[in-house]
Amino acid sequence: MEKTDLLIIGSGPGGYRTASYASQNGLKVTIIEKHYPGGTCLNAGCIPTKCLAHDAELRLTTSHVCNTIPPLDFTKVMERKEGVITQLREGVNALLTQPGITFIKGEAHFISDHIIEVNGKQIEAKNIIIASGSRSKTPPFLKEEDITKQKVGEQKIVTSTEILSINKIPRRLSIIGAGVIGMEFASAFSAFGSEVTVIEFMKECLPPIDSDIAKRLRKSLEKRGVTFYMQSAVSRIDLCEENKETVKLIFKRKDKEETIETDLVLIATGRQANVENLGLDATGIEYSPKGINVNDDMETNIKGVYAIGDVNARQMLAHAATFQGFRAVNHILGKKDFIRFDIMPAAIFTYPEAACVGKTEDQCKNDGINYSTRKGFYRSNGKALSMDETEGMIKILIREDGLLLGAHAYGAHAADLIQELSALMNREARINEIRDIIHIHPTLSEILQDALL
Question: DSSP for 266-302?
């Protein structure tokens, strides 16, 4: 039986970056992947959607200058996306061949707490990290096979995975869910020319974002022609008898049943941890359909077995998976780190983009925290005006002693602005210290300085 210091199941950002970090720290690492290296993020998530977001933004910004919307070659859009994926996948493949790492293509199954079987052979590892990721969650009125059984090119119902492989722009796209995935695709496909409708059960889109910012972003998309049905619940999807090329969405809004006709339905109702088919029942690992239970070191109830990323359902973000992996390896090595999982920045790559870190105003109110708010607006910033990007705002929440509690923004390069505040929050900087940091002129970062002054 083969033995290794660390065995990792899954090669997404959590898996492959953890493998690299562990090998650099002297561990002999085996990593197993049943699909493509890079995981969902690289192959059917973060990277391809950002390619579409870029091309969509380019089309919109070009129209501002030319006063007309340029023609769209969707085939080239998809070819560019595939080229980016291929290039990055090759980079991950190269990383996984570095000294100290053994990469195995296959499906891993637990035989016992510390023994894994893959491709008919068994590997024993003192330490195991499960990084098996997640998949699209289907709503109660659908089954996963309702989506997977459709013929390629003839799909009427897709998830974020399948929509990344369509060969033409749908005339009408209906999206169920106004979370990050739903909003990003709504933004991109409306820019590509689709008539986009979003149906959301909650009162507002993007729950992690401060409701003030979320509402402004939704209104911005509405100005571009996206239709939103909030506080609405889809009950079923029917094929149109008179036109097999279209489908009907039936949903309830304010206790009234409504129907819309559409050409393609995108299911964007969240993600579900991949806990099946791992053989977890052959172990003592505690888990549920929601994910694998872990402590703050990402260790399960079985010593030496860890779970990182989407599969533990703590923070379903690629960068969260990466740093959870670093924490797990540090725990294995007995190293102290300064990773703050309570300060987790996130971005939504709509146009304009949005980003957040820390608490929302609603959370501050619910927690009984004494706080104040500061706001800065793009319309009064010289760089934003020169970029023709005056739509946007940043909102900062500050505790009474000057500590930053959270920040939320929408507008050009919102993620970059929030990243600056994330760094300062990690160092527990107070408002009086941040005010004195010199910012380059003219830059968008001056919006932060103006807000804090």
Answer: EE-S-EEE--TTS-GGGS---EETTEE---TTSB-SS
CA distances from 360 to 141, 180, 237, 395 (A): 32, 16, 35, 10
Q: Any residues with CB less than 8 A from the CB of 240 and at least 6 apart, and which? A: 246, 247, 248, 261
How much is the pLDDT for 243? Answer: 67
Structure tokens at 205: 């889109």
Tell me the CA distances in angstroms from 380 to 35, 220, 409, one per residue in order: 48, 18, 15
Q: How far apart are CA 429 and CA 405, in angstroms?
A: 11
Residues 6 or more apart whose Cβ sits within 8 Å of residue 249: 174, 176, 199, 234, 237, 259, 260, 261, 262, 265
- Give me the residue label for tokens 């023709």: 388
DSSP 309: G
Q: Which of 403, 282, 441, 412 is nearest to 347 (CA)?
A: 412
**CA-CA distance, 46 to 48, in Å (whole number)?**
6
Residue 207: count of CB within 10 angstroms of its CB: 15
Q: Which alpha helices (H) appear in 407-445, and where do they start and end?
A: 414-426, 431-434
Span 239-288, pLDDT tens digits: 776 667 889 999 999 889 999 999 999 999 999 999 999 999 999 999 99
| Nearest in space to 128 (alpha carbons), one of 331, 267, 310 | 331
Query: Of the listed 35, 64, 331, 441, which one is catalytic?
Result: 441
Q: Give the closest residue to 39 by CA, choosing from 133, 122, 129, 104.
A: 133
Please indicate whether residue 441 is annotated as part of the active site.
Answer: yes
pLDDT, tens digit (0-9, with 9 covering 90-100), for 173-217: 999 999 999 999 999 999 999 999 999 999 999 988 999 999 999
Q: For residue 273, what are the β-bridge partners?
A: 134
- 448 three-state secondary structure: helix
Tokens of 394: 């940043």
> How many helices (H) and strands (E) are present in the chain, helices listed first?
13, 24
